[in-house]
Amino acid sequence: MITVSENAKQHALSLITSENSPEGTFIRVGVNGGGCSGLTYKLVFDNVFTESDQVFEDKGIKIAVDKKSFFYLIGTELDYMGGLNGKGFVFVNPNASRTCGCGESFGV
Fold first, then answer.
1. Residue 49 in contact with residue 28, Cβ under 8 Å?
2. 104 pLDDT band (50/70/90 cuts)?
3. pLDDT category of residue 75 using cuts at 50, 70 and 90
C-alpha cells in the first residue's frame, strides 16, 4: 500500500483545484531507472487508469502505480515538505537502502 500524509493531501487537493483538473484526477507514482543511485521517483497527476495499475486510496486521495514500480514502493508514504532546501512532494520509502546526496534517486 502507498499512503499520503495530511500535508501531501492538502497540497495535492490545492494543485488539482488550482489547475482546474478534470473530475476524477488522481496521483500517479512510479519509478524509472536513472539517477546516481539507480532509480528515480516520478509523480504526475492523471485521470485515466490503465490495466496494469495498482490503485490505492488514502485520506480521500487516489494513487495509481504500475505493477513494476509497486515492488519498489510498497509501504511508501507520499509527503510534502516546504523549507530552505526547497519544497515539493517527497517519497518516504522504507525500501530505499541508499539515496544520493541530492535526494532525487534511490536504490534497493
1. no
2. low
3. very high
CA distances from 43 to 18, 29, 69 (A): 17, 5, 12
pLDDT tens digit string along 12-60?
999 999 999 999 999 999 998 876 657 888 999 999 999 999 999 999 9
Question: Looking at residue 45, which CATH number applies to its domain?
Answer: 2.60.300.12
CA distance 63 to 3: 8
Element spanning 95, H or E: none
**Domain range spanning residue 11?**
3-97
Give me Rg for the CA atoms of the chain: 14
In the structure grid, which three cell numbers stand for residue 75, read together?
A: 509501504
CA 17, 79, 59: angle at the middle one, nearest 5?
Answer: 60
**Prediction pTM value:** 0.84
